[in-house]
Amino acid sequence: MKKSDFYFDLPEELIAQTPLEQRDHSRMLVIGKHSQQLEHKHFYDILEYLHPGDCLVLNNSRVLPARMYGKRTDTGAIVEFLLLHNHGNDEWEVITGPGKKAKQGTSFVFGDGQLTCDVLSVLDNGNRMAKFHYDGNSFYAVIDQIGEMPLPHYIHERLENAERYQTVYSKEKGSAAAPTAGLHFTPDLLKKIEDKGISVAYITLHVGIGTFRPVKTENIEDHEMHYEHFTVSEDAADKINECKKRGGRVVAVGTTCTRTLESVADADGNISACSDKTNIFIYPGYSFKCVDALITNFHLPESTLIMLVSAFCGRENALHAYDTAIKEKYRFFSFGDVCFISDSI
Q1: pLDDT one-digit tens code per residue, 204-222
Q2: Structurally, what CATH architecture does the domain formed by 67-146 represent?
């Protein structure tokens, strides 16, 4: 299957630059999983499509203010650092730009000196391993002061309130990007969902910056996914397995939840609690084991995310829905509108 099979022409003006004032007022395109049936709704209408006995699965990862600007201690050169993965002992895998100014052995200072780092090594993928040093007990408290929210490259407007790039249920720090399908939920909407008899399970997958990296190989089977770390608790696994037993639907909120659940599910769709990492690549031809319905934003052309959506509801069906969304001027990408894909429409 070719990368070009997932191309569509997206007008730039449809790329959402700012979030809506009210999270749950985004438009929602409801897509029949095995048909080209479409319905135009708003996200607060999701209550109509969730049924008692279903299980809604949410990713509670919290985005780090992971973009920082360091000054090289010997030359004064400014280098951008983007935190990717915590390897323990205050050693992080980072992306640096320009990379040639962050060679092995160089040192940097950030902010007013609250944070420093040494570049330990250059990895095969061009990323760096850096060892950070700081005063106080919490690395995260320091980067909360000096770091910036790592908004995607296609967002050019300044984000006035950094919490709008966090879900209202974000808890576990570690993501370099938001699990954006969850941005549409409000505390009130979540309460109404639970009051209707729908169980809510929280899992954690720390979203890596690789989620924005394009597919460069024309044959998509040759594309190698980045690894992302996840945790599925006993409580979440129990809720998902109980849902399956009673014949309810597992409704994944976002591609991050989908990839996590499909990574840990057995052939019957049952989930075991675990903490691990995954680089699962889901594209058409994949047979889903656990996820029955999907809430997800509108994704980039030729991205691994549109490939996952195409695997879930069929490529022609997905591209037909996207063509309709473009004609109807839905808002795309991280701060944009949302799809709900299910059998039951």
Answers
A1: 999 987 766 789 999 999 9
A2: Beta Barrel (2.40)
Distance CA 139, CA 306 (A): 35
The string of pLDDT tens digits covering residues 312-332 is 999 999 999 999 999 999 999
Q: Are 70 and 117 in contact (CB under 8 A)?
A: yes
CATH fit for domain 3-63+161-342, picks 3.40.50.970, 3.20.20.370, 3.40.1780.10, 2.60.40.10: 3.40.1780.10
Which letter does DSSP use for residue 126 in this model? Answer: S
Tokens representing 195 are 């009051």
80 Cα distance to chain centroid: 22
DSSP-derived pairing of the beta strands 199-205 and 55-59:
parallel
Quick one: tokens of 173?
Answer: 């720090």
Residue the block writes with tokens 């919290």: 62
pTM for the structure as a whole: 0.93
